[in-house]
Amino acid sequence: MATPSSFYHDSAEYLRVRLGGFKPEILLILGSGLGFMAEKLENARYIPYNEIPRFKNSTAPGHKGRLAAGTLAGKRVLAMQGRVHVYEGYTPEEVAFPVRVANLLGADKLLVTCASGGVNTAYSPGDLALLTDIVNLTHTGPLVGFDISDFDVRFFDMSHVFSRRARKVAGEIAREQNIPLREGVYFYMPGPQFETPAEIRAIRALGGDLVGMSTVHECIMAKRCGMEVLGVALVSNMAAGVLDQPLSEGEVLVEAEKAAGRFSELVTAVAEKW
Q1: How many CB atoms lie within 10 A of CB 209?
Q2: Closest to 116 in 3D by CA, of 193, 35, 36, 215
Q3: Residue 244 and residue 230: Cα distance in Å, rounded?
Q4: pTM over 0.85, yes/no
Q5: What is the mean pLDDT of the chain?
Q6: Which residues pair with residue 26 across a beta bridge?
Q7: Measured distance CA(139)–CA(128) in Å, rounded
């Protein structure tokens, strides 16, 4: 059963009061190992998810599970220091719930980040990549049975999930700062197990460059809310079968730490110029 529309408004009103009327411009979702960006906000205030009505708690490694509100490069930012996933037992709608709440508070832009596996064999661990599109073949999403009473249409365009304007801005920043930046299609797999080599070959044949266990549900909800979306992925490891070695969650945090400087510079500059 879909979450009643009033639940979103209740959560937004709680945060509006708790944050003293703070009106974010950008929602920043920070993936595995990338939560440190929330601590770079100026005049930041932090609220654990378990204190916010109907927010779900993060259980994945590297996800602190709290909301940060502050400024970054002069922009008002609401940052999710960690996200929740379907593999934690949550529904796609519960995963995407904070996106609509942030939109109700005023955020009209979503900068979503994630750690991902490199399917494209031209990629290397540590690469940063702009997302150009998504593939979701799980046949589930955050809007199934969705309460549309606050919206005017149920069916909406997904031709350009990720803003071409924002991608252009990010590309120009990367060139100016000499930050290597890939581009690729993100393929969603629900996890928590890593993919098999056969699945990765199939994903590659279907046009996937990156694979991960998050991101798509938040992007779908953001597009439904009319938000402009930019996605940045960190290639934390090469996907199964690309290299003859086992995969582990530890690789994700190691590569995130190595890429911290480049990631921080890119995200900060994008926030300023977007």
Answers
A1: 26
A2: 215
A3: 33
A4: yes
A5: 91
A6: 77, 109
A7: 28
